[in-house]
Write a structure and sequence with these properties.
The structure holds two protein chains of two kinds.
Chain A (H helix, E strand, L loop, with lengths): L9 E12 L2 E12 L3 E5 L6 H8 L7 E6 L2 E3 L4 H7 L1 E4 L11 H6 L5 E2 L2 E2 L1 H14 L15 H14 L4 E5 L7 H16 L3 E5 L3 H7 L2 E6 L2 E7 L5 H9 L13 H5 L3 E10 L3 E9 L3 E5 L6 H9 L6 E6 L2 E3 L4 H6 L2 E4 L3 H5 L6 H13 L7 H14 L16 H13 L5 E5 L7 H16 L3 E5 L3 H7 L2 E6 L2 E7 L5 H8 L1 H5 L4
Parallel strand pairs in A: 3-10, 3-11, 6-9, 9-10, 15-20, 15-21, 18-19, 19-20
Antiparallel strand pairs in A: 1-2, 1-4, 4-5, 7-8, 11-12, 13-14, 13-16, 16-17, 21-22
Chain B lengths: L5 H19 L6 H10 L1 H15 L7 H17 L5 H25 L4 H19 L4 E2 L3 H8 L1 E3 L5 E3 H19 L1 H11 L1 H6 L4 H27 L1 E2 L7 H11 L11 H21 L5 H26 L11
Antiparallel strand pairs in B: 1-4, 2-3
Classes of the chains: A alpha/beta, B mainly alpha.
């Protein structure tokens, strides 16, 4: 860390790697350099390309272009196993070990000490114990791995990887499910390994932890390299700008005037609404014909807020009101009953049903709202599907095509149509433009404005700050699962949002 | 590992059941009855040992009953009709059944097919092949058979530990050692935990799959030979449905049907429990032998419910250790 004057030799060099999935360019000519003995944070929002890059380096995905050098030699592993043999080990958030085996067996699976064809259980346990002691763990290695906490499972996975003579250790969100004390254990292990000359790639969305542990930072955004910096000399505001902001141009565009907004009626309001350990209680008013944007980093509580508002998660305090009347939102059913709609972030897994047709997908929520005993006739279904295909310009305009065959933008429109068909009063959109090409991107934004003009209340989450700035009438900024700032009118611009996200840095100690 | 291991519960059920039976029929608690119990269930104990490996690895082998049936017919015909020396016939059928199991394992791995389907096909194949050889029962009169049948170790109290019971005990002990003490055994558990993860950790998943099904079919072949000793005949309809009795014994023995946990000793206790129920019904004399099936069914339900409970318990975060050894 201190000896930055004599740069350690680069251990892992990634030059110009690209990777596309169909038409989506997940990585475009990204460079990455890892030195021996350093802890290097790899940062970026969802969809920035971190996971893709790790999988390309470790051979899980074949790369389209570029080279990877390990210790000066070019490598091209074809599987995670081959990468491990080459000396690159990856420990994922989901520990890739066998919880049903003992800790010792996990450490020495397939390479147990043997004598006369018999596993030397005692010797194996002794070695496992010694190995883990190096990592500051003194545990019963004969107990099954699954009986231990995730932190210990992580350390076990790291110990195994290192003992297999890994030179590069990639940790993908290792701290996401750990508490503070467990993070300390893990960080202790990481520092010790770095001292031994192992290069560590640390992927995390906890910026405090990044500043605490890393020597250098590489930021990706939309599949491109934004930059590589020394952690110590990178202000937090600058880092967040690298992760979120684009060029600060063209920030202000058509937005409702202040006078117009105040005249609008409240559609739904939430007072002191929250859930312990999920989102800090917040106050939120959503008005007809108004777009409220939720901005913040990954994990700041944006999606959590959306789920509480919709009823997908049950609040344990506060009062929700719809059109002034108190209501209880205990399940998505309640949300739908009160005229709410929710387009989740994971379109493919939580939203569309890929095998069903456009028509079937569109009528899904409406049918659910009406109940099974009042089926929509085929004629009604056709009419509804045709109307929304035309209204949202879904292409190709064929209601009988399976949704899985449509492009991302059109899938998003089908999802929108599904909720619009229920004539909602409030629509919650979580990252509506994620994974959509540029043309469709603009169209979705136009749609959001139009819907709003029709009197719908919208709550929109997006990581694209300039996008939020374009369509929001108000912006709520979140940090650490707390609503920290509400911006309205002229105050809405990328700079102010970034400042609010990074606000605590100014007066908090640099850890 | 988790409070009370399932195998201990199986042992308690067996001891309690034995005590209850002995209270009603004091004669049950004799080496004579125990010796018969071991002899009557020798083939089941052997084939269940193989099934334990398969189920712990996350698979299932439905073909074992048919392999037993095929083996009895093949051995009877080879010795009686084709004039092959018994020992040569044994070696040939064991090689054949091992190859059969290996082929099923290879198909399961290479084509990534569910073991249920592949071994179901194997079940029909082996049963069909035994009908092809002979549709009627073929008695075996070779002198080796009477020698083996007559051989027995005298136990105190007048019980007889027969040759086939001894074969079964040796295989159970050997199986337990193989499962718990060798790298092969550790890999079996690894496969049952997660094939993908095991592969990532360096286990040769394909080879292991072939070997595991090979072992199961080989033991089914041995069970078939033992069965032919037991009945002194080869019949294509013998051991119909035995695969299900075997799975029941394995599950009652505390092996998780989804794989990853279990033991050969537990399976052995499971076999004994089934044998005990059968013995009780024989002693009673008024009960239909189908009560064995009903009692087995009830026990199966109880044990599956128990396993679900234990799995749920293990998933509870509160049950996780913080770090210190206990």
């Amino acid at each position: 860390m201190e000896n930055s004057l004599d740069p350690a030799p680069s251990l892992l060099e990634v030059r110009g790697i690209s990777k596309s999935f169909g038409a989506v360019r997940a990585l475009q000519e990204v460079d990455f350099t890892l030195r021996a003995g350093e802890i290097h944070a790899l940062l970026g929002e969802n969809g920035a390309g971190k996971s893709t890059m790790i999988k390309v380096i470790t051979g899980v995905f074949p790369r389209d272009a570029g080279i990877v050098r390990l210790g000066g030699e070019e490598i091209a592993p074809r599987s995670a196993k081959a990468a491990l043999q080459a000396g690159i080990a990856t420990v994922y958030q989901e520990v890739n070990l066998l919880p049903n085996l003992s800790v010792a067996q996990n450490l020495f699976l397939d390479r147990q000490p043997m004598r006369f064809g018999i596993v030397r259980e005692g010797e194996m346990r002794r070695r496992a114990k010694a190995l883990l002691k190096d990592f500051g763990l003194d545990i019963d290695v004969a107990a099954s791995l699954g009986s231990y906490s995730v932190a210990i499972q992580h350390v076990t996975a790291i110990a195994r990887a290192v003992d297999l003579s890994a030179r590069v250790l990639i940790l993908d969100e290792p701290t996401a499910s750990l508490d503070r004390h467990e993070v300390e254990i893990l960080f202790g292990v990481m520092r010790q390994l770095a001292k031994r000359g192992i290069g560590i790639v640390f992927v995390s969305h906890f910026l405090d932890q990044v500043y605490e542990i890393s020597d250098r930072i590489t930021v990706l955004r939309n599949g491109r390299l934004v930059g590589e910096r020394e952690t110590a000399s990178l202000p937090r505001l600058e880092l967040i700008r690298m992760m979120l902001g684009r060029e600060l141009a063209e920030t202000t565009s058509a937005r409702a005037s202040a006078g117009e907004r105040i005249a609008r009626e409240v559609c739904a309001s939430f007072e002191n609404y929250g859930k312990a350990g999920y989102v800090t209680p917040f106050n939120l008013e959503l008005r007809h014909g108004e777009v409220v944007g939720l901005a913040g980093l990954l994990g700041s509580g944006r999606t959590e807020t959306a789920r509480l508002v919709f009823g997908a998660e049950r609040a344990d305090r506060g009062q929700a009101k719809v059109e002034g009347a108190p209501v209880r939102l205990q399940s998505p059913r309640d949300g739908v009953r009160h005229g709410f709609g929710y387009c989740p972030e994971e379109r493919k897994t939580d939203g569309i049903v890929a095998e069903l047709t456009v028509r079937e997908n569109i009528v899904l929520a409406l049918q659910a709202k009406r109940g099974l005993h009042r089926p929509l006739s085929r004629r009604e279904q056709d009419e509804i599907a045709r109307r929304y295909v035309r209204m949202l310009d879904i292409r190709p305009p064929d209601p009988e095509r399976a949704v899985g065959l449509l492009s991302g933008g059109n899938q998003q429109k089908v999802l929108l149509a599904r909720w619009l068909a229920t004539s909602p009063r409030l629509l919650v959109l979580d990252e509506p433009t994620r994974g959509i090409d540029v043309g469709a991107h603009a169209e979705i934004i136009r749609l959001i404005r139009e819907l709003c003009d029709d009197g719908l209340a919208l709550l929109v989450i997006s990581s694209e700050l300039d996008e939020i700035v374009t369509y929001s009438d108000r912006v709520v900024v979140l940090r650490d699962r707390t609503h920290v700032e509400e911006l309205a009118g002229e105050a809405i611009d990328v700079g102010n949002i970034l400042a609010a996200i990074a606000a605590d840095v100014a007066h908090e100690a640099h850890a | 590992m988790k409070g009370l291991p399932p195998v201990l519960i199986t042992a308690i059920v067996l001891v309690a059941g034995f005590a209850l039976c002995a209270m009603q029929f004091p004669n049950i608690a004799s080496t004579r009855v125990v010796g018969n119990l071991l002899t009557d269930n020798a083939f089941l104990g052997i084939v269940a040992t193989g099934m334990t490996f398969v189920i712990i690895s996350g698979g299932i082998d439905l073909s074992v009953g048919s392999v037993i049936g095929f083996t009895t017919v093949f051995v009877a015909l080879a010795i009686e009709r084709w004039g092959v020396p018994p020992l040569v016939a044994f070696v040939a059928i064991l090689a054949l059944s091992a190859a059969f199991g290996g082929a099923m394992g290879a198909v399961i791995h290479v084509f990534d097919l569910p073991p249920f389907i592949v071994t179901l096909a194997g079940m029909f194949l082996a049963r069909g092949a035994s009908f092809l050889l002979s549709t009627e029962s073929v008695p075996i009169t070779a002198p080796v058979y009477s020698t083996v049948s007559d051989f027995a170790l005298r136990m105190p109290g007048g019980g007889r530990l027969t040759a086939i019971a001894i074969i079964m005990l040796v295989i159970v002990i050997g199986g337990a050692l193989l499962l718990h003490l060798t790298r092969f055994g550790a890999n079996v558990y690894a496969l049952g935990g997660s094939r993908a993860t095991a592969s990532l950790m360096g286990v040769a998943v394909g080879k292991m799959t072939v070997k595991i099904y090979m072992l199961s079919s080989l033991l089914a072949g041995i069970a078939g030979i033992v069965f032919s000793f037991y009945t002194s005949a080869g019949y294509s309809l013998s051991a119909v449905g035995v695969e299900l009795d075997t799975i029941a014994a394995v599950v009652i023995g505390g092996t998780l049907l989804t794989g990853g946990q279990g033991s050969v000793i537990g399976t052995f206790l499971g076999v004994l429990i089934q044998g005990l129920i059968q013995t009780y019904i024989n002693f009673d004399g008024t009960l239909s032998s189908w009560w064995t099936k009903i009692a087995t069914g009830v026990l199966l339900f109880a044990f599956i419910a128990l396993q679900q409970g234990l799995v749920a318990l293990a998933r509870r975060p509160a049950a996780k250790r913080a770090g210190a050894a206990t």
